[in-house]
Design a protein that fits this description.
The chain is an alpha+beta fold and 161 residues long. It has one domain. Helices cover 32% and strands 26% of the residues. The chain contains four helices and eight strands; from the N terminus they run E-H-E-E-E-H-E-E-E-E-H-H. It has helices spanning 25-31, 55-68, 120-141, 149-157; strands at residues 2-8, 34-41, 44-45, 53-54, 82-87, 94-100, 103-108, 116-119. The strands form two sheets. Strands 1, 2, 3 and 4 form a four-stranded antiparallel β-sheet that branches. A four-stranded antiparallel β-sheet has the order 5-6-7-8. Helix 2 (55-68) runs antiparallel to helix 3. The longest helix has 22 residues, at 120-141. 32% of the residues are buried.
Amino acid sequence: MIELGYSLSPRFPDPPQTDYRSAAVRSLRYDLFCGDVFLDADGLDFSTAWGWVPVLDFAWALCDIVEQLDQDPRGSRSAAVQTADLDFTQSTELLRFARRFGLVEISATWLDQPPAVVRHEDLRREARDFLQDVLADLADLHPELADNPSIWTVQGRFPRV
């Protein structure tokens, strides 16, 4: 089972002059919407408590990683290990993902705990739902964000499963 969530940090508010309608992808991913992410996988907690994690970037990158882990044409029949790392831009910490067959191991460099093991298809569904939920929440906070072409692109690239 996988649970994903987030909270935006009041310590790092977006600049009031931000034009969300035309904000560049780099700003959307790295400069805006900072906070913490909550990830519980297989009963293990991989949440951050730093307050500065770019939440939209985390959701977007997680969807990219899930697709990266699915590059082998044999899919869940593949015995080859496929790996990917989600790095946090302001530190050296990583979430590590390793897929073999239909299972994905998730580990974190900042935690001393065994890896969680989840089904790849569950991770894909939860990651996409999380991204779509984050985008909907942020568009509720900043309605002009829904008119940003980069947001349209990512919404179309990672629809709900």
